[in-house]
Amino acid sequence: MIRRREFIRLLGGAALAWPIAARAQESRRVRRVGVLATVPADDSEIQARMASFHQGLQERGWIVGRNIRIDYRWSAAGDDEQTRKYAAELIALAPEVVLAVATGTVGPLKRVSGTTPIVFVQVSDPVGAGFVESLARPGGNTTGFTLFEFSMSAKWLELLKDIEPSLTRVAVLRDPDLASGIGQFAAMQSVAPSLGMELTPIGVRGATEIERALSAVTQKSNTGLVVLPGSLTLLHRKLIITLAAHHHLPAVYPYRYHVIDGGLISYGPDTIEQYRLAAGYVDRILKGEKPAELPVQAATKFELVINLKTAKTLGIEVPPTLLARADEVIE
Fold it and tell me: What order of strands is seen across the sheet that includes strand 328-330?
């Protein structure tokens, strides 16, 4: 028979052991995260972004295969049916949080689940799209990181005029299914008259339409090109850059990777860093914070990149003042 004093001692030891065991079990539990993107998995740019996301998780103690599992779904840009299907598949796996890559993935995820936490990246207008109530107080189950304020779109037009002052017409290439393109085009329209430029919006949904559109705009002289951001223009960036070179179109792009791949000039946010920051929000949600309490963050670092080799091919002499402002010059 156990005496009363010994029983109390054993009970006390058990009471101490339970929290320790529970903590050990919790530390061994593998947490589940989903990723939905509208870019092929083998795209070099998305690979760099996801490497940054993994780095951000590792910096916070999350190791894939040890204490976290990541389920991916790679939808085709512009294939809404496939995106909806993959969104449903991911939510069915019961992830604790989903990383939504680009505007086209957030809506389908929210329609499938109003409770699964969502952290988005590469989204231009989350309030206008109805993803969050406000940037400071997102509300609901969604938060994340924005890229562009509409007013910044005017900068692309100004850069095009700086690098080729003779331009009087500008074709604006965009995905018509992205509502953010409307605001971006409006911002450019507001400054076009002062720059002596006439704008033409060109909505494209695939490679064939891109080829046809860029061939058509070259029928008029003194024409330049602005490429708006989106999964479609990311996916077909090499085609767009090749066609711009073939038709001798001076073009401004939203991201550095366009210029690395041979584009003329770009101005936009650091896309890679945003994914590392998104890992921080995923970490905070896994530790108990709510998306509604995490404010949407705007990009703070912007890069001006110029490809001198492309400028030479197009017969453009880049002004020294513009070169002096560049964050990176590719020769």
Answer: 198-203, 169-174, 223-227, 251-253, 265-269, 302-307, 328-330
Q: How do the domains of the chain map onto residue ranges?
A: 30-148+270-301, 150-269+303-330
Architecture of domain 30-148+270-301: 3-Layer(aba) Sandwich (3.40)
CB 129 within 8 A of CB 123: yes
The pTM of this model reads 0.84
Q: Which residues contact 151 (CB under 8 A, 6 or more apart)?
A: 187
Tell me, rounded to whole angstroms, the distance of Cα 297 from its chain centroid.
13
Per-residue pLDDT tens for 312-330? 999 999 999 999 999 999 9
CA 9, CA 3: separation in Å to the nearest integer? Answer: 10
CATH topology of domain 150-269+303-330: Rossmann fold (3.40.50)
Answer whether 224's CB lies under 8 Å from 249's CB: yes
Is there a contact between 139 and 133 (Cβ–Cβ < 8 Å)?
yes
Burial 246-258 (b: 16+ CB within 10 A, else e): ebebbbbbbbbbb
Same fold, 30-148+270-301 and 150-269+303-330: yes
- Residue pair 118/282 in contact (Cβ under 8 Å)? The answer is no
Residue type at 175 in one-letter notation:
D
What is the tens place of the pLDDT at every residue in 35-67? 999 989 999 999 999 999 999 999 999 999 999
List, in sequence order, the alpha helices (H) in the chain: 4-28, 44-59, 80-92, 103-112, 153-163, 180-195, 207-217, 231-235, 237-246, 256-260, 271-286, 308-313, 320-325
